[in-house]
Design a protein that fits this description.
The complex is a heterodimer of chains A (about 425) and B (about 90). Chain A has 15 helices and 18 strands. Chain A has 3 domains: about 200 residues, FAD/NAD(P)-binding domain; about 100 residues, 2-Layer Sandwich (D-Amino Acid Oxidase, Chain A, domain 2), CATH 3.30.9; about 60 residues. The termini of chain A are far apart. In chain A, the strands form 3 sheets. In chain A, strands 1, 2, 6, 7, 8, 9, 15 and 16 form an 8-stranded mixed β-sheet that branches. In chain A, strands 3, 4, 5, 10, 11, 12, 13 and 14 form an 8-stranded mixed β-sheet that branches. A two-stranded antiparallel ribbon of chain A has the order 17-18. Chain A is α/β, with parallel strands linked by helices and about 425 residues long. In chain A, a hairpin with a 5-residue loop joins strand 8 and strand 9. Chain B has about 90 residues and is α+β, with helices and mostly antiparallel strands. Chain B has one domain: Alpha-Beta Plaits. A two-stranded antiparallel sheet of chain B has the order 1-6. The two termini of chain B are about 20 Å apart. Classes of the chains: A alpha/beta (about 425), B alpha+beta (about 90).
């Protein structure tokens, strides 16, 4: 006999486990399926977790969850082959709970979250790849796994299967496959360093952490950026580059990463670190334009699979969107099961929840940011201009100084026309 | 440090059934060969006999899946429990 559940969630990442936890709490019979041996083992983060979306899901989570460090310093850096110009923000407001954001290891954090769902009653099935959906009378009615007799039935299936989102395509929600210009490829290294060294280099105390994003000439005009975050005993660093742009440039991402690591000021941060892990993952990049249809008869899609990653140009957020969309899908399923209606019409409530929440609103607000970030001058001319201006400002030699406005005009004028700078400025003003 | 040394720091459970297969006859007529540089694990290499692919060491990102325009790649996730196991992620 085929086993039947109220809801099957495919993927025990942040979206899937948040959905499973929400539904199990409300008494639904939930199966959470994960292809890895343990939740989180296939996942990679290239960002920090803005975890406040967990507040209403897990009481006191900030004291319970396996967090690496709480972020107190955020920075954006522009680098050239010689210099780093850093805009850094640190406030006492981030020193105390409730903290704004944190670094996590996915293998620990995702496992912990899946365990919360399990404790609430969800059945977690690991080591199991879902290959296809089961359809009956125009409704998704379950999943086919690779196990012998591997069919599982459910009234609703939530696809939280990550950025490749093969199931969203099988469900007919994503009409065509994701394309290279819509995603970034992230590659990451984790470096082991003594805790005292990390605290000293980054100016941190105890469980405090820092998060830096960089753009600059190391990218060789490829559209993307680099990151450097502190964990407890390790640093996470890497690059995320648009796959379409990488293809055009025909360069290996690992070369760009090495270029970044070799930059002298970055070197000072990471020096002496021992590589303990290398990883890679894709990430949705273009926001609203790649969001598929979110629901159908008996099916919903959440997290990266739905393309829910948003940037305002300064923060790059996906994990909080995954958690929030998982919760929204979970609540929608609870109501649909209560009313005995899992049709697309009933599950459209999920779309409404997304639209009304920060997910839909921010996707809309920042819908064009990736156009701005795609500007190649952000990675070549502007870091060089900023370097030269900063140098003019801080350097003393026996030549007379030039007034700021005149100096800026001459530095900029050598690289980019003033007209172009104004146009780029207007773009940023409008879209960011 | 080259990619192979980096991959030594990653745990894999390898499967005798590769999750990705490459139709090399299609590759012969491909001029762009995106696979050679988009793969973060450099699993695709150009040898005398043409494109070579090694599934062991694949990080399962999917970059080759969406980059290959010629349709030479049949891409699946590894079977449940197989493939890469990030200890940190």
């Amino acid at each position: 006999m085929v086993k039947h559940f109220d809801v099957i969630v495919v993927g025990a990442g942040l979206a899937g486990s948040a959905a499973a936890l929400t539904m199990s709490r409300s008494g639904l019979n939930v199966c959470l399926i994960e292809r890895a041996t343990s939740p989180g083992e296939k996942n990679v983060t290239g960002g920090v977790l803005y975890g406040r979306v967990l507040d209403d899901l897990i009481t006191d989570w900030q004291n319970k969850a396996p967090v690496e460090r709480w972020i107190v310093k955020n920075g954006i850096g522009m680098i050239t082959s010689k210099s780093l110009t850093l805009f850094q923000f640190e406030t006492e407001d981030f020193y105390n709970p409730p903290y704004n954001s944190c670094t996590i290891n996915r293998a620990n954090f995702d496992l912990w979250l899946a365990q919360q769902a399990e404790e609430a009653g969800a059945t977690l099935v690991t080591n199991t790849l879902v290959e296809d959906l089961i359809f009956k009378d125009g409704y998704v009615k379950g999943v086919k796994t690779q196990r012998p007799d591997g069919e599982l039935e459910a009234d609703i299936v939530i696809c939280a299967d990550g950025v490749n989102s093969l199931l969203a395509q099988k469900a007919g929600l994503r009409k065509k496959d994701i394309s290279p210009h819509e995603v970034g490829i992230g590659i990451k290294e984790v470096l082991l360093l003594p805790i005292e060294k990390i605290n000293e280099r980054f100016g941190l105390e105890e469980n405090q952490g820092s998060a830096y994003e960089f753009i600059g000439t190391f990218l060789n005009c490829v559209h993307g950026g680099a990151f450097l975050y502190t964990n407890k005993k390790t640093l996470s660093l890497g690059i995320v580059v648009n796959l379409g742009s990488l293809q055009k440039a025909a360069v290996q991402p690992s070369m760009l990463l090495e270029e970044f690591k070799g930059q002298p000021q970055i070197q000072k941060f990471i020096e002496g670190g021992t590589l303990v892990e290398y990883s890679a993952h894709m990430v949705p990049e273009i926001g609203l334009e790649m969001v598929p249809k979110l629901y159908g008869n008996g099916v919903m899609v959440a997290g990266d699979a739905a393309g829910f990653v948003v940037t305002n140009g300064f923060t790059f957020e996906g994990m909080n969107y995954a958690l929030a969309s998982g919760k929204a899908a979970g609540h929608t399923a609870v109501l649909a099961m209560k009313n005995g209606d899992v049709s697309a019409k009933a599950l459209a409530a999920y779309q409404d929840k997304i639209n009304e929440s920060f997910i839909g609103k921010n996707l809309e607000t920042y819908r064009k940011v990736y156009h701005v970030l795609g500007n190649p001058r952000l990675r070549q001319e502007y870091p060089q201009i900023i370097e030269e201006i900063a140098k003019e400002l801080f350097l003393f030699d026996d030549k007379p100084r030039i007034k700021l406005a005149k100096m800026v005009r001459s530095v900029v004028g050598n690289k980019v026309s003033m007209w172009q700078v104004i146009r780029d400025g207007i773009d940023m003003w409008r879209y960011m | 440090m080259d990619i192979l040394e980096k991959l030594m720091r990653v745990y894999f459970i390898s499967d005798e059934r590769p999750h990705i297969t490459v139709n090399k006859s299609i590759c012969q007529s491909c001029s762009s060969k995106e696979c050679l540089y988009v793969c973060p694990a450099q699993r695709y290499t150009m040898e005398a006999e043409g494109i070579q692919f090694v599934a062991d060491g694949c990080l399962e990102c999917g970059a080759c899946r969406i980059s290959c325009k010629s349709g030479a790649i049949t891409w699946n996730y590894p079977r449940g429990g197989f493939g890469v196991r990030f200890r940190l992620g």
